[in-house]
Amino acid sequence: QVQLVESGGGLVQPGGSLRLSCAASGIIFSRATMRWYRQAPGKERDLVAAITSGGSINYADSVKGRFTISRDNAKNTVYVEMNSLTPEDTAVYYCNAVLSFSIYWGQGTQVTVSS
Q1: Residues 27-40: tens digit of each pLDDT
Q2: Whose C-alpha in 30, 40, 99, 102 is 20 to 30 A from the C-alpha of 2?
Q3: By CB neighbour count within 10 A (0-12 exposed, 13-18 middle, 19+ buried), where does 52 fall?
Q4: What is the spatial distance between Cα 32 and Cα 18, in angstroms, rounded to a whole number?
């Protein structure tokens, strides 16, 4: 059974930083493309960042220069380091894995940016 478990969310002040983690089990993690999405209240779920099995990375324009995605295949974990956070980054952040045409989602972790 595939499981993606996000952690690291919380409340942070504007300008602050958070690091989200997503621990995967039940898949060959090193072969999966891993993505972070986010969904704000009343909005669609949007792609934030992606990293392929080969290490290729892309970001949404809204987070370029502020967010950094990385992966540790030895720990079956993908991360996103989020800096210079603004209230507009407030959302539930979801981890996503794609492997052999199968798609898996985590349960999400809330990030709230507020003073």
Answers
A1: 999 999 999 999 99
A2: 40
A3: middle
A4: 24
